[in-house]
């Protein structure tokens, strides 16, 4: 079994150990009411609902506890607003101080992906409500005792006050005070709670986060330390002594010796080269690494330290700006610098030209930092802007479509993050038209390709006419020959559809926007590279049907936009050369959804909604084969008449249609 080390959730992944649940509580999506965390202390508090309708729940005891805690008051400060103990709080404690040898493992298709744990937290019930009840009891007793003495007696009671002046605190006294239990408790209480939002197991965000449990290489080993030659592995087991290392002459930090470089592991060689050069074609990188270097291993390593921009490799921002560093010009932390530089790299994936003022306006960084970003990967042109320093590497794009596809998926994720951080407008997302076109067009539509083909045929019309006359003469000599007309020679025009193909092409961004997907026409299965064989079509349909079926069994209801996002994530997890990489159109995906037993729900959204057309197309699994099929169908019929419905209307409609009274939890489960 191949073992991979996933680093995406490094220092972020926690293991929660829940206590053995009582019979009146279930740890599912409905019961999690709220959650908050103190990150420095690694302390978590969860508030979970108790099923008060469960036969194992003692209602009289729950009412008594609520009365002891809150009294007869019903204000907003009450712990139990329903006059019943209907929830319980769980607090965490660290199960182990050192969790470096623990990891979470995911097994998939013969591969074991490991993610190191950052903490193991045991959740235990919190009984702070009992302290609150005791405080209420003491207040009542004090009030009763204070009522016996009159106000006059309190005024006549004069007490002597002794005033003392504290001496200056010595260093030893201060250290004892800092190490005391009371001081530590005070410091811990000063840290503010950070409120969290809980996402259920079947939520799309949970599905997205679970993808990070797999290594970024998607089928390729991410940890290059596991791929070593016998001599390198022996060197790791028995490293050279410290004396031998000190004997080596130390070169200046700005000098890179190729002789010393080739003694390092392959991953370190590539990282040092990319950090110094910043932008490099793959062919140049192979020439620097020396003859005999495996190109597959180089591709595996380069993806860890660089991103693909216009067919060339550009070093990642976090390699140039590690954590806990800052800008030498403005003092801005590394995280902000990485976001700004990622924005510049992303702009160069859309266009060969970038305007410095536009970058500064979006990133809000100082001009010196922006200039550094641009100088890393582009050249200034007078009165034009900054042009990407290297030409488009078409050879690499043609030879490695799987790498291009994987990098395209990564850029889509980076674009989504940049849109949220910088609130990018449409003018930032669409490439600007240039007066002078480069050698490789930024966008070639289907209609333009048809016009180009027509022009080419007209140029070769004379040759076609000669061939036709020759063929016509040969056919006349044969009695069974059939006449052929020049008008029958037609150019196959690409069908034009209102819907654009899905962003599953390997060349959409990396090849400056050229789309390579299947056509949208109902009977068309052509791709830009030719026709798909019949057997291949069947395999693509089977794979697509399996994905759609498994997705809707988990989600039940999805918009077309969300389904396309999940499909892109699914493509990113597939190995190179998979049949689904042949190109899937929106229409193929929608037809497959309807073929798998789903229905489109025509939700009457308001006309002034800002949602996109794909977000307005809602599909739902009509029959899942469980006990809630009828309830779901009634609920979907309700939403097909109105996009916003009150809960009591839903509950009454479900009771009428299904002929049974549903409790609150059953309605919650159907709605969930």
UniProtKB/TrEMBL annotation:
Please list where the region (Disordered) is annotated.
Answer: 134-157
User: What's a BP term from Gene Ontology annotated to this protein?
Assistant: tRNA transcription by RNA polymerase III
Keyword vocabulary terms for this entry: Coiled coil
For this protein, the record's InterPro entries field holds:
RNA_pol_III_Rpc5, RPC5_C
Q: Does the keyword Acetylation apply?
A: no
Report if keyword Chaperone is assigned. no
How is this protein named in the record? RPC5 polymerase
Extract the coiled-coil ranges from the record.
447-474
Q: Which GO terms describe its cellular component?
A: RNA polymerase III complex
> At the top level of its lineage, which domain of life is listed?
Eukaryota
Alphabetized Pfam families for the sequence = RPC5, RPC5_C
Question: Taking every annotated instance into account, which residue ranges of this chain make up the domain DNA-directed RNA polymerase III subunit RPC5 C-terminal?
Answer: 432-672
Question: Residue spans with biased composition (Basic and acidic residues)?
Answer: 134-143
